[in-house]
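Sequence only, no structure available. Ideas?
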Amino acid sequence: MTERFESPPGDPPNLAVEIDAQVARGLYSNVVLVSRSTTELTLDFAYAQPHARVVVQARIILAPDNARELIHLLSAQLEAPDDRTALDLAASPPAQASSLRAR
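Reply:
I predicted one. Tokens follow.
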């Protein structure tokens, strides 16, 4: 099973993003480790098990410009009004997707 997403407004036309079923399930992370060099930022998304070890679930490497844009997109999503409650969550439209521009 593959899902397709259309290009968000402002992105290059005809950019189709595909996500397979395994990736679409997602991974749980309760810890993010960040490291950087002069040319890239590395984000390690990990799961810290109680009284045990921390297991990295995924590593994402970003150029500094993409990291700045990610910060902007995350801030916009977190600041967006969210008037949904547990009672009307199922009736709410799906969240609006945002994306980083390909560089």
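The first strand starts at residue 2 and ends at 5.
Hope that gets you unstuck.
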